[in-house]
Specification:
heterodimer; A: alpha/beta; B: alpha/beta; 10 helices; 27% strand
């Protein structure tokens, strides 16, 4: 067992004929993921990466392939429409890699998906990986290793850096999930902590946070109230000045709660082992 | 991105909220009620928050602690009862409610139409004749929505002298310029440099999957920053074409000014690529064994 995806996952890539779509599809297939096809409007009937069929719409792709998971690899202007299309076609897990989606669109999207069977990971997310089983998105299998630690991060690069560091030190993961670094994302830390709490293969969870927003502080409250499994955390941006937006649209200190220090304090108060840096985190996990 | 005053004024006017150009100090003598009316995308709740903060009118115009807000679910929209709750809370006289409801609806529409992150009417004042008049306003537009706000995008691109690029450069105040493919790792490096006694001059984020041109552009930007003493190049290159990146780095190092050092930390690099880079490494380039080693070298060289 893992969370969100497993060996039954059948993946579609929306935007499979574009540069990023091709790259992700190729890597996922190379890593053993069951990529059953792709979607690019007006290119239905063509053959995509490694002979995977291309469909005009998600509905026709689902009908033909029984896909249950989708990767969104289209431009920001089309991504929201692509997510609605996947949700309407009954896709259960949508990983949106696309960044630069307007905040109002994400807010509307979350309103619409609330209560539906579809779970959105992202936008601006690297994806989900169950080591040695399946990887949906852009997390290479080579940087992960089977184990019992659940790993969640907002930042894709930080997720990959820490996953690779854990793997190099023999610390395996049950599931690795990047939730996305935008200000508004589909699935929160809390929802994933809840899934990890119920997951039999996960014995502990590592949470990688960063400056901006209340996600880590809300997660701390949840951990204190509900989590029985040990949680470890690293929060980056401890030396970022106030008011400076660091790359991600969500990474900016505007209020006191946005600082790394406030988040680290809240997490410590909730019983979380908070690392000062990556080496400190690896030492805690050994 | 905050629109400049004239552009904001034009957007508010288009939404049916003309900003009054009278001198505020003179006009405020006539105010019977004044408030700051705001719309804001709340990232934590995923809702749009409409709020009103009340002003003291005497002896000077100053915001009080009284703030009233309503959260709007975008798929449902703004309802009249929410504005009525607000208008009740600020104690507006009943004969002015209709006008207040109108102006609030216009502000909400202005927010949506312009893909705003926030809008502010400040102050929005009630005059003795029962009219609500806005004397100032600001409008922050979401840069992610420029693709469907061409007019705003064009104006902001002029303002930014070139507009959005593939790379994101964040200026800080130290001497080590970080080039990384991801902001999360960039922040981790800023923290690590600080802990080791150094300070970052800038973070240049190439995005997760840079192509060769993006990396070239990032490195060129790094050497043009005058405060750069050391460039710390950190790439998680599991996804990248390592041979292409190695060529870019080799070419860059050949043109590296003598007074700038470059510390290279490539997570996931193959032994073959490492050997290639080591052969061409110049005297002012170091290939680190890992990230801790890279930070240690960078701080040591910068100081």
């Amino acid at each position: 067992m893992a969370i969100l995806i497993d060996h039954t996952t059948r993946v579609l890539v929306q935007g499979i004929t574009g540069r990023k779509g091709r790259t992700f599809a190729d890597q996922m297939i190379a890593d053993g993921t069951n990529v059953v096809g792709g979607v690019t409007p007006h290119k239905g009937g063509e053959w995509g990466v490694r002979g995977r069929p291309v469909f005009d719409s998600v509905r026709s792709a689902v009908n033909a392939t029984e896909a249950n998971t989708s990767v969104i690899a289209v431009g920001a202007g089309s991504a929201v429409d692509a997510i609605y299309e996947a949700a309407d076609a009954g896709i259960h897990v949508i990983v949106c890699i696309t960044d630069g989606i307007p905040m109002l669109d994400m807010m509307r999207l979350n309103d619409s998906l609330r209560g539906s069977v579809t779970r959105l990971i992202g936008a601006n997310a690297p994806g989900i990986a169950v080591p040695a089983t399946v990887s949906v998105g852009m997390i290479p299998a080579a940087i992960t290793q089977q184990g019992t630690t659940g790993l969640i991060a907002r930042s894709g690069s930080l997720l990959m850096f820490i996953a690779a560091g854990m793997t190099a030190r023999g610390i395996g993961q049950s599931t690795v999930v990047g939730i996305g670094a935008d200000a508004v994302v589909g699935t929160s830390f809390i929802e994933l902590l809840s899934l990890f709490e119920d997951d039999l293969e996960t014995e502990r969870v590592v949470m990688l946070g960063e400056i901006g927003g209340r996600a880590e502080i809300d997660a701390a409250a949840y951990i204190r109230a509900r989590m029985t499994k040990p949680v470890y955390a690293l929060v980056v941006g401890q030396n970022v000045p106030r008011g400076v937006r660091i790359g991600h649209s969500g990474a900016i200190i505007e209020r006191d709660d946005d600082t790394a220090q406030a988040k680290m304090s809240a997490l410590r108060a909730a019983g979380v082992e908070v690392a000062e840096n990556a080496d400190d985190l690896y030492a805690m996990l050994r | 991105m905050q629109l400049d005053f004239h552009l904001a004024r034009e957007r508010f006017s288009k939404a049916g909220i003309p900003l009054d150009s009278r001198d505020l100090a003179m006009a405020q003598r006539d105010f019977t009620l004044a408030l700051r009316l705001t719309t804001l995308n709340d990232r934590d709740t995923g809702k749009l928050v409409l709020s009103a903060a009340l002003y003291n009118l005497s002896p000077h115009l100053g915001l009080t602690d009284a703030v009233y807000s309503e959260s709007i679910t975008l798929s449902v929209g703004l309802h009249a009862y929410q504005i009525r709750a607000l208008v009740n809370a600020v104690n507006a006289p009943p004969h002015t409610w209709s006008a207040f409801i109108g102006i609030t609806h216009q502000l909400y529409t202005c927010h949506l139409v312009n893909d705003a992150l926030s809008t502010v009417l400040d102050p929005l004042a009630l005059l003795p004749d029962g009219r609500w008049v806005a004397f100032g306003g600001t409008l922050h537009v979401d840069p992610n929505a420029y693709f469907r706000q061409p007019e705003t995008a064009l104006l902001m691109a002029r303002h930014d002298h070139g507009g959005r690029d593939e790379i994101a450069l964040i200026a800080l105040d130290g001497t080590i310029t970080i080039v990384s493919n991801g902001a999360g790792v960039g922040m981790l490096l800023i923290d690590a440099i600080h802990s080791a006694g150094g300070a970052a001059a800038a973070l240049i984020d190439t995005g997760m999957m840079p192509v060769a041109e993006t990396l070239e552009s990032a490195l060129t930007s790094a050497i043009t920053l005058v405060q750069t003493r050391v460039i710390l190049l950190h790439l998680v290159i599991a996804l990248a074409d390592q041979h292409t990146f190695a060529k870019v780095i080799q070419s860059f190092v050949e043109h590296l000014p003598a007074h700038v050092f470059c510390v290279v930390d490539l997570s996931g690099i193959t032994d073959e690529i490492r050997a290639t880079l080591e052969v061409t490494a110049a005297t002012n380039m170091i290939i680190a064994s890992d990230t801790r080693d890279a930070v240690r070298h960078a701080v040591s060289l910068a100081t």
